[in-house]
Design brief:
The complex is a heterotrimer of chains A (287), B (455) and C (298). With 287 residues, chain A is an all-alpha fold. Chain A has 14 helices and no strands. Chain A starts with 8 loop residues before the first helix and ends in a 5-residue tail after the last helix. Chain B is α/β, with parallel strands linked by helices. Chain B has 2 domains: 168 residues, Periplasmic binding protein-like II (D-Maltodextrin-Binding Protein, domain 2, 3-Layer(aba) Sandwich); 229 residues, Periplasmic binding protein-like II (D-Maltodextrin-Binding Protein, domain 2, 3-Layer(aba) Sandwich). In chain B, 49% of the residues lie in helices and 13% in strands. Chain B is built from 20 helices and 12 strands. In chain B, the strands form 3 sheets. Chain B has a 5-stranded mixed sheet. A 4-stranded mixed sheet of chain B has the order 7-8-6-9. The longest helix of chain B has 33 residues. Chain C starts with a helix and ends with a helix. Chain C has 298 residues and is mainly alpha-helical. Chain C contains 12 helices and no strands. The chains are: A mainly alpha (287), B alpha/beta (455), C mainly alpha (298). The interface between A and C is large, with 92 and 89 residues.
Chain lengths: 287, 455, 298
């Protein structure tokens, strides 16, 4: 392939610069994780005294698991993690299906309504949660879904759709019309085309949408509190943030909770890293 | 081509599984809410700050105990904390469905609850039960909406200076009595490499709440707010401008380090405990984070150090001050009863029983022992509780602090947040040196007048 | 002829079947809240029961209050800086990384892709807390400098927003990396190979084949960058809270401070939010206009 083959000094310098920049970025990505992990073994008291040394380095303190034990017993994490998985998976699946359907419609089926409908999704990308919080609460109450999983999922899907529909539409637009037209001439229905041609080709954008949706829903903290009241329906960020008060922060436990919250995400990301890369690459395979 | 069909089939199958699952999940939670066995069910909006030191066993000690004592009542408690708590309260208010018993603040933070009279006046309840004399009179004063909306769990001193005597002794210094004493200490402390005031001024409210409210009270008198409302004084008058000039002086003289403007609240408690500063300027709530944390068995300040090295004082005497030995104080948070509950109903009686219990001896003792709040209920014998539970020295020093000093208002407690925010930011501008005291005072006055017009 | 009619009908039926589900959910969740938001920005609602309290229409008072505030302009300027650094920093970097990785110009492609995207997986809270303690007056930054200059005392930074820009630049590059990776795969590699055989240099391939093919994606990425930068809240809120003296504030924090700190002021909050949408729209319009002028058609 197109490796930098020439051995001119300029190419060498270029290579050094490229690798250095990539390595610096990689370090920046790892350092916060290490820092977090390290501090989760310090008590809040030790952290307040020294935020940078290894746990137990400060005189009179030693590394401890107490944060994890305490956060886990008080945090109700099993329920919260399960809820987070339900909300995140449910949202991602629905958003993928709906966004690719709508994206196909907007991109490949001509209709006068597209301008208005698609435009309204673009507005959705720009709205801030703080302003729609109260009306959303009223709405979910009015349709009787307050304090239920469905009452959380529908708003989550709704707020994730604008970005997903926008990305899917733009991506599908760039698939050549000729592919659709020739399939039509061969007598295929639009749904057949969607299933057999568009959906497989849209894999890269589906992966992009999935990644973006997962990270936003997994960390969502405001709406979940507004839309539910039962502890049994809340999600992971509620458990993580509970140790950060307005006047005092219990850093040790907060860091332990953050690690607990990060592990599923990191595991998911690292395990499916290959699949994600492949998913992105799959779109290139002709067929 | 086959592969594509496969993907879609999987997606559709998942979709089909998911919809009933979601519906089921939705249904099941409603079922639990409907459970009813002849008991009076109260919905409670509770603020649960898990970060508060030693709050781990609140469920058993506070709520379960109440249910045991009151078998005819059942509780549906919604625990929530931080910023979402306020947002949720607003959402409930907007929908007109406030829970039966809610946690709230006495001041601006819960302004919309107060102003809309969304909760009942508790004074008649106290009077009916003859409980008025059981409480510290300072705790029963009218709140933001002009009435007793919540029964407060404590009185909070928002200004408390922790003195590190080890540092002072190392420099051969005494606790400062006057502003001049304080200023004279600065070069001596700096010489030895110590900081003077440990403060974290990047967080906007800190300077205003933990220091300036006290200064303004000293120079403007305990009734500055009443006279301001009556139109007798303005923010552009001496009392306020002089206060701002004092802040400027503290920055200029190095009492407060300018780089504290890049430090967020709570950061400097550690360095203070490490003897890097002579004084920690904070609120009384900082005590609990310096004391023993039961979950870790560690304390920033050991019992011996609390006893021997630490003194609790207020800002020294300022030339021209009209009141002496004051701190700034505010009525603490507490629980209130929704105004939607029918008057004289059994539910109202149950709600009152709960609110009364939450500020009764049992719960207030618990909060004293855990260091969360200082009792308003006079039946709690503070000395006895301290002795029986062998509480840390800082607790009795704190009790002594409350007995020694009197209160003036906290700025962001009495003023609307619109005006208080301008003061907060103006104080930071002073620190940055980008505005003069007169300019800041003028900004505040303009905002105050605009706010008055809107009322 | 008959075939044409049924085909057309199929076309429309299909269109609505495809588009309506997404649109209905979206409208259900967003339309009412949005209309509510705009209407409230023109009223004097001060919290309390929405159905029974006395709410008056006061026109553009709240907008005037926002525009009269000196810190609105500080926030706006900071937001525009964020937009600038996203569009001209994150996007080019994301593109360069995606290009280097997808053209197999560096080894350990998987590793670097994982690492660059990693910050987006870590919660903003962690990143904010880390950088905050790194830059704080008692933090690592000062300790590092003291290694070289022991007498160094942390002075007040003259440009605190620089730290925020730096962290933002780094944190979100990964998002653009994956968007560009996805789209780079779409370019038919046989065209590139053919061009190479014809003697085109790497730069020529980039300039004449890849960039034109990606112009639409660059616009998409810019739109995401613009809207994302204007909505930026979490990271800055954790890192600086907008302080000191609002020097690092942005519109969303300005809104939060002005409208949600203490008693909520919904008219002002919604006015700011409406202004944010208008600014986004303007910037997106400009982007689209530039695309139509200089962008290549695929």
């Amino acid at each position: 392939m197109a490796n930098i083959q020439s051995h001119s000094p300029a190419a060498k310098v270029g290579k050094v610069i490229t690798y250095s920049v990539l390595l610096v970025f990689s370090c920046f990505a790892v350092v916060p994780l290490l820092w977090l992990f390290m501090n989760s073994f310090k008590t809040t008291q030790e952290f307040m005294i020294d935020k940078l040394s290894l746990p137990g380095q400060t005189e009179g303190y030693s590394a401890t698991l107490v944060n994890y034990i305490d956060a886990w017993t008080r945090g109700k994490f099993p329920t919260l993690i399960m809820n987070s998985v339900i909300y995140t998976a449910g949202t991602v699946i629905m958003v993928e299906v709906l966004a690719i359907m709508a994206g196909f419609g907007f991109a490949k089926l001509r209709c006068k309504a597209t301008k208005v409908l698609h435009g309204s999704f673009v507005i959705g990308i720009l709205l801030t949660i703080q302003c729609i919080m109260v009306p959303l609460f009223l709405l979910v109450n009015a349709i009787g879904l307050y304090n239920s999983r469905l009452g959380v999922l529908i708003p989550y899907i709704g707020i994730s759709l604008p970005m997903a529909v926008y990305l899917a539409t733009e991506y599908i637009k760039s698939i050549p019309d000729a592919l659709v037209e020739s399939a039509r001439i061969d007598g295929a229905s639009y749904f057949g085309i969607l299933a057999r041609i568009i959906a497989p080709m849209a894999k890269p954008v589906a992966v992009t949408v999935a990644i973006l949706t997962v990270s936003s829903i997994w960390n969502e903290f405001m709406l979940i509190n507004i839309l539910t009241s039962d502890d049994a329906l809340k999600s992971l960020p509620v458990g993580i943030n509970q140790f950060a008060g307005a006047l005092t922060t219990d850093y040790g436990k907060q860091f332990a909770s953050l690690v607990i919250g990060l592990i599923p995400m990191l595991a998911f990301y690292l395990v499916f890293r290959k699949e994600i890369t492949k998913g992105v690459a799959a779109g290139a395979v002709k067929g | 081509m086959k592969k594509g069909k496969h993907t879609l089939t999987i997606a559709l199958a998942l979709l089909l599984c998911l919809v009933p699952a979601m519906l089921f999940a939705g249904g099941s939670s409603e079922a639990t809410a409907a459970a009813d066995d002849g008991k009076i069910n109260l919905t409670v909006l509770n603020y649960r700050d898990t970060s508060a030191t030693n709050s781990a066993n609140e469920d058993e000690v506070v709520w379960d105990y109440f249910l045991e004592q009151n078998p005819d009542i059942s509780l549906t408690i919604e625990n929530i904390f931080g910023e979402p708590f306020l947002a949720k309260t607003e959402a409930y208010l907007a929908s007109g469905n406030l829970p039966d018993v809610i946690y709230m603040w006495s001041g601006g933070k819960s302004a919309s609850v107060h102003q809309n009279h969304a909760v009942k006046d508790l004074m008649p309840f106290l009077e009916k039960d003859g409980l008025v004399d059981d409480y510290n009179p300072a705790a029963l004063v009218p709140q933001y909406g002009g009435y007793l909306a919540e029964l407060p769990e404590g009185i909070t001193a928002s200004h408390m200076i922790f003195v590190n005597k080890t540092v002072l002794e190392d420099c051969g210094l005494e606790i400062p009595e006057t502003l001049d004493d304080l200023l004279a200490m600065v070069p001596v402390l700096k010489e030895k490499g110590y900081g003077v005031f440990a403060m974290d001024n990047m967080t906007t409210w800190v300077m205003q709440s933990t220091l300036v409210s006290t200064i303004v009270g000293r120079l403007g008198g305990a009734d500055w707010y009443d006279r301001l409302v009556a139109g007798e004084i303005d923010f552009t008058d001496d009392w306020f401008v002089d206060s701002l000039e004092l802040v400027e002086l503290l920055y200029d003289e190095g009492v407060i380090n300018r780089n504290s403007l890049q430090s967020t609240y709570g950061t400097s408690r550690g360095p203070f405990a490490l003897n890097q500063y002579a004084f920690l300027v904070d609120g009384d709530w900082a005590c609990s984070s310096l004391m023993m944390d039961n979950t870790t068995g560690q304390a920033l300040l050991s019992r011996e150090r609390q006893e021997n090295d630490i003194e609790l004082i207020v800002f020294p005497e300022i030339p021209g001050e009209v009141v002496h030995d004051t701190t700034s104080g505010t009525i603490g948070t507490g629980y209130a009863i929704s105004a939607d509950i029918e008057e004289g109903s059994a539910k109202e009686e149950a709600a009152w029983r709960l609110v009364k219990y939450l500020q009764g001896e049992h719960v207030q003792e618990y909060r004293l022992v855990t260091g969360q709040a200082f009792p308003t209920n006079l039946n709690v014998d503070v000395d006895k509780v301290i002795e029986e539970n062998n509480l840390e020295p800082l607790v009795s020093k704190r009790a002594e602090f409350y007995n020694t000093y009197s209160y003036t208002p906290v700025i962001d407690d009495v003023l609307s947040s619109e005006v208080a925010n301008v003061i907060d930011i103006g104080l930071q501008e002073l620190g940055l040196g980008s505005k003069t005291p007169v300019e800041v005072a003028q900004d505040v006055q303009d905002t105050w007048e605009k706010w008055l017009d809107k009322q | 002829m008959k075939g044409g009619v049924t085909k057309r009908r199929e076309h429309y039926v299909t269109y609505w079947v495809l588009v309506l589900p997404a649109f209905l959910i979206y409208i259900l969740v967003m339309a009412f809240p949005t209309i509510y938001s705009v209407v409230l920005s023109l009223s004097d609602y001060r919290g309390g029961n929405l159905f029974t309290s006395d709410i008056n229409f006061v026109g553009f008072d709240s907008y005037k209050e926002v525009i009269d505030d000196q810190y609105f302009y500080v926030a706006l300027k900071n937001n525009l800086l964020l937009v600038f650094i996203s569009v001209f920093g994150q996007i080019p970097l994301g593109f360069i990384f995606a290009y280097l990785l997808s053209r197999d110009m560096v080894k350990h492609k998987d590793f670097f892709q994982t690492m660059i995207y990693l910050p987006s997986v870590i919660s903003t809270v962690v990143i904010g807390l880390l950088w905050k303690s790194f830059f704080s007056p008692n933090g690592a930054f000062v300790q590092l400098i003291r290694v070289f200059n022991p007498s160094y005392e942390a002075a007040l930074s003259s440009y605190p927003f620089g730290q925020v820009l730096f962290v933002t630049l780094w944190m979100y590059v990964g998002n653009y990396l994956i968007i560009f990776m996805a789209n780079l795969q779409k370019i038919d590699s046989s065209i590139i190979e053919a061009a190479k055989i014809d003697g085109a240099s790497e730069m020529q391939v980039l300039w004449h084949i890849i960039l034109p093919a990606l112009s639409g994606v660059i616009v998409t990425a810019s739109i995401l960058a613009i809207s994302g930068s204007l909505k930026a809240f979490d990271l800055i809120y954790v890192m600086t809270g907008g302080g000191p003296a609002n020097r690092t504030t942005v519109l969303s924090i300005f809104m939060y401070d002005k409208a949600f700190k203490g008693a909520p002021n919904y008219p002002v909050a919604n006015a700011i939010s409406t202004i944010m949408v208008v600014i986004s729209f303007t910037l997106i319009g400009i982007t689209k206009f530039i695309e139509s002028r200089v962008g290549g058609r695929e």
